[in-house]
Structure to design on (943 residues):
């Protein structure tokens, strides 16, 4: 009913928005949220392919089944881990420099 | 999920022709909403609003998963993303901002060029997607649903290695977070 | 006995080494060391002489050079001539050293004086013992060196330093001739041993030229005309030096050389006549200059030159034994004369200038009463040199005269006679002016100490008695001992009464003339003669202007050449060096400019460019992560778009 490409376009839109946010947000937390968006876009793509292409080796239990979904599961886990570490870093930076604005945190400036 | 679809099926059985239309319409509506909420995430002035809009976006994505016959993933998405990660975000926001700060401009100087770049990317991606004749079919496609039990079985047998690795990653993230987040008592 | 003869020069050399190294600590003891050494040499010389009488001869001491064609070794020649000379040199040398203790007693370089004297003794004795020309030349140079050192002993006086230089350079000219002669002989005969050369010499040009060249060395050392100019100036040295070196021994080395190499001289008449005539000219010239000189020591110096000329006349005319005989007797009484003169100089102090010692005889007079021993020995020596019998000089001079008559050299006979007349005259002029008459200036006089008068007495004894060796009373023992030619047994030599008579007459006449001039009419006669013969007087008192001629002909051009060379060296050579230095400096300036402005420019350019580039490029490091992300993403999009469009 709904063609595969539309799902993929949805994923593309989410990805673009996420990239825009990563480039533009002024706070670190904003950037992290954009990164979550990007990861979700990837997940959408994965699930789409799972639905339309199936698995490589046939239905379970003999073959790998639900490969896309398993992959998406792992992506979510990874996203969680990265969010955790990122947020802890933000908190640590905030403790050090009392600001969360990315413009002000430029110790590596020339 | 099984019952729900069947219920919906039963409900909409009569509306035969409408069924597809409703499915399509609802999908486009939810997709548009998700995109709108995502846009709001990156454009809100207040970080709290961003967090809330993020939660809404993730809900919308979960609904999209439903359309793709990935019920379990939808549930997992809501549970973990919305339930844990967004909560984590809100905690972090609370810890790092003063509540009475006035809302400041949330975009930096790169807004324009970033936006342009994103647009270019988007148009290229859409062009590629449309150009490509997507393969469909293959074993296991078009399945109505994938049972939880079967997912679990394949997780434990075929994908056991990534499973273990992911647990290690989570452990590492946990320990790392604790170490970084420590405060030193003088 | 004879085999230890080579130690004779070694004892004085040891004394020299000790005195030179430890003289400062030894002070007066250095004299004892020198005298001990020369006494030891005397004893050894006496032993050698006795050994030679018994039949000992020459021998080789040590091997030295072994060249391809010939070997030159340190050899010692022990024959009558060298034995006689050894005895003379050691006796006279020892006595003079004893005398020097008194004469040089207050000198601050006392020990060095004795060191030099010992070195001289060693060189002279070595010269006498040399059996080949090479060794002889080594010691020849040695005595020359000692002469120079001793003449300019009081080198703080510029006159002494100049005199030393003059002596060295003048004798050097003679020595060069000697060296060339030696080399000529070597290249002709491949040997330099005296005994071999005597056999090999043949009557041809090479040997004639060689003989003449060897005689050049003798001319220089024995102060013959034209190289006589250094001896009068050498009187600047201390009187013992004048006595030893320039009267008795070193100047006799020239005569000794001719006698040693006589085998080469007799090949034909040319060398012999050269020797005789130069000797004659010298004898006459020097005696005439002594007639009008007013310095004690210079009169004696010219007398030495004249007597050496006489010896050369004798040798040149073939009177080998006579020449050697006169050499021996002259050594004794000339040394005595010089020591007496030294005694006089040492003792008198001019009243107005207490520190000044005068040597001008016009300032002296009437000293006999205050210095009896000196005076007596002075007179004895004067009688000896004037040829009055039975003193030593009579016998030797008579031998020369009789040989001249016998060989038919009548011209040389007349010259010798004239010389004897002048000798007697000027010697007694000296004696009368110094010892008798009124004291011409205020002088404080005292007799010299015993250490000086005892050698005088001993030498006076020699001057009286030594002549008898060659007299008929001892059957002409000397002439039968020292002769040239084949071995012959004791000859009976008929005494030539004519020669004896005329030489005695001439001597007495000269003494009488001097008495006339300087005792009887002592003011009027000399001045009258001077006025009458003023031109002759001027020529004589200016020594025939020889020094001035040499100055003009040789010395001034030489000095001018030296100044020119110096200017050339300064200007051209130093100029070139400086110019090269300046060029190098200019080049270095250019190079430094290049280095600063060109090389450094490029290096700095690279640095500056890098700086500019980095200035531009480092703006990328904004420190903002999002910028980096933007850039990375930009690249990605670019790739995608290109792929998309390119297909």
């Amino acid at each position: 009913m709904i063609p595969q490409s539309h799902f993929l376009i949805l994923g593309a839109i989410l990805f673009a928005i996420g990239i825009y946010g990563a480039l533009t947000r002024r706070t670190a937390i904003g950037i992290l949220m954009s990164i979550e968006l990007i990861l979700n876009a990837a997940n959408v793509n994965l699930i789409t392919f799972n639905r339309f292409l199936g698995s490589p080796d046939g239905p379970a239990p003999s073959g790998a089944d639900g490969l896309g979904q398993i992959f998406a599961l792992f992506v979510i886990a990874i996203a969680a881990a990265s969010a955790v570490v990122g947020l802890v870093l933000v908190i640590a930076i905030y403790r050090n420099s009392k600001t969360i604005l990315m413009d002000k945190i430029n110790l590596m400036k020339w | 999920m099984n019952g729900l679809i069947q219920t919906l099926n039963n409900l909409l059985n009569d509306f035969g022709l409408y069924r597809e239309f409703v499915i399509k319409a609802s999908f486009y509506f939810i997709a548009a909403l998700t995109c709108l909420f995502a846009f709001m995430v990156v454009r809100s002035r207040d970080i709290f609003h961003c967090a809330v809009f993020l939660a809404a976006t993730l809900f919308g994505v979960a609904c999209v998963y439903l359309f793709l016959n990935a019920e379990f993933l939808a549930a997992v998405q809501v549970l973990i993303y919305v339930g844990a990660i967004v909560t984590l975000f809100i905690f972090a926001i609370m810890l790092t901002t003063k509540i009475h700060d006035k809302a400041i401009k949330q975009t930096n100087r790169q807004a324009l060029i970033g936006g342009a770049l994103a647009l270019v990317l988007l148009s290229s991606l859409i062009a590629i997607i449309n150009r490509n004749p997507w393969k469909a079919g293959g074993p296991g496609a078009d399945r109505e649903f994938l049972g939880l039990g079967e997912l679990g079985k394949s997780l434990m047998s075929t994908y056991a290695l990534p499973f273990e690795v992911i647990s290690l990653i989570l452990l590492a993230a946990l320990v790392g977070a604790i170490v970084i987040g420590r405060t030193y008592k003088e | 006995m004879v085999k230890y003869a080579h130690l004779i020069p070694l004892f004085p050399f040891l004394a020299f080494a000790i005195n030179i190294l430890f003289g400062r600590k030894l002070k007066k003891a250095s004299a004892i060391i020198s005298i001990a050494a020369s006494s030891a040499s005397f004893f050894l010389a006496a032993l050698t002489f006795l050994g030679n009488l018994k039949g000992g001869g020459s021998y080789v001491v040590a091997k030295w050079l072994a060249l391809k064609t010939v070997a030159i070794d340190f050899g010692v020649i022990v024959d009558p001539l060298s034995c006689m000379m050894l005895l003379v040199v050691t006796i006279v040398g020892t006595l003079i050293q004893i005398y020097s203790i008194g004469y040089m007693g207050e000198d601050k370089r006392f020990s060095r004086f004795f060191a030099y004297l010992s070195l001289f003794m060693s060189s002279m004795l070595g010269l006498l013992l040399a059996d080949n020309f090479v060794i002889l030349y080594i010691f020849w140079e040695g005595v020359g060196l000692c002469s120079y050192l001793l003449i300019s002993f009081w080198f703080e006086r510029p006159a002494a330093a100049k005199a030393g230089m003059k002596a060295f350079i003048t004798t050097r000219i003679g020595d060069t001739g000697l060296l060339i002669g030696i080399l000529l002989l070597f290249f002709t005969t491949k040997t330099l041993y005296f005994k071999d050369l005597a056999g090999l010499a043949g009557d041809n040009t090479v040997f004639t030229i060689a003989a003449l060249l060897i005689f050049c060395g003798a001319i220089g050392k024995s102060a013959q005309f034209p190289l006589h100019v250094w001896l009068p100036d050498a009187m600047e040295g201390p009187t013992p030096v004048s006595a030893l070196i320039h009267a008795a021994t070193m100047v006799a080395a020239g005569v000794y050389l001719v006698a040693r190499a006589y085998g080469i001289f007799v090949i034909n008449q040319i060398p012999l006549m050269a020797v005789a005539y130069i000797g004659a000219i010298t004898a006459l010239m020097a005696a005439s200059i002594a007639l009008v000189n007013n310095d004690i020591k210079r009169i004696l110096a010219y007398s030495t030159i004249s007597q050496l000329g006489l010896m050369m006349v004798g040798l040149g005319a073939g009177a080998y034994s006579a020449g050697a005989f006169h050499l021996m007797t002259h050594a004794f009484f000339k040394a005595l004369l010089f020591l007496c003169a030294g005694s006089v100089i040492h003792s008198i102090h001019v009243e107005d200038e207490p520190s000044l010692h005068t040597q001008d005889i016009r300032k002296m007079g009437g000293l006999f009463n205050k210095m009896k021993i000196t005076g007596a020995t002075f007179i004895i020596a004067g009688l000896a040199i004037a040829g009055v019998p039975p003193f030593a000089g009579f016998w030797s001079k008579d031998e020369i005269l009789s040989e001249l008559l016998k060989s038919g050299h009548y011209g040389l006979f007349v010259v010798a006679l004239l010389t004897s007349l002048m000798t007697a005259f000027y010697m007694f002029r000296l004696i009368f002016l110094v010892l008798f008459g009124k004291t011409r200036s205020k002088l404080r006089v005292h007799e010299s100490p015993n250490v000086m008068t005892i050698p005088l007495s001993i030498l006076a004894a020699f001057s009286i008695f030594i002549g008898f060796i060659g007299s008929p009373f001892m059957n002409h023992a000397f002439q039968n001992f020292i002769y040239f030619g084949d071995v012959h047994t004791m000859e009976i030599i008929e005494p030539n009464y004519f020669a004896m008579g005329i030489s005695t007459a001439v001597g007495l006449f000269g003494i009488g003339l001097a008495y006339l001039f300087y005792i009887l009419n002592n003011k009027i006669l000399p001045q009258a003669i001077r006025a009458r013969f003023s031109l002759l007087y001027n020529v004589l008192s200016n020594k025939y202007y020889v020094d001035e001629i040499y100055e003009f002909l040789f010395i001034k051009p030489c000095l001018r050449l030296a100044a020119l060379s110096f200017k050339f060296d300064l200007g051209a050579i130093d100029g070139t060096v400086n110019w090269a230095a300046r060029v190098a400096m200019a080049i270095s300036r250019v190079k430094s400019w290049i280095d600063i402005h060109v090389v450094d420019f490029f290096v700095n350019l690279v640095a500056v460019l890098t700086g500019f580039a980095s200035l531009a490029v480092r703006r990328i490091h904004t420190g903002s992560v999002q910028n980096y992300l933007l850039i990375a993403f930009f690249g990605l999009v670019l790739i995608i778009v290109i792929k998309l469009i390119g297909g």
About this structure: Chain B has two domains: 1-96, 148-186.
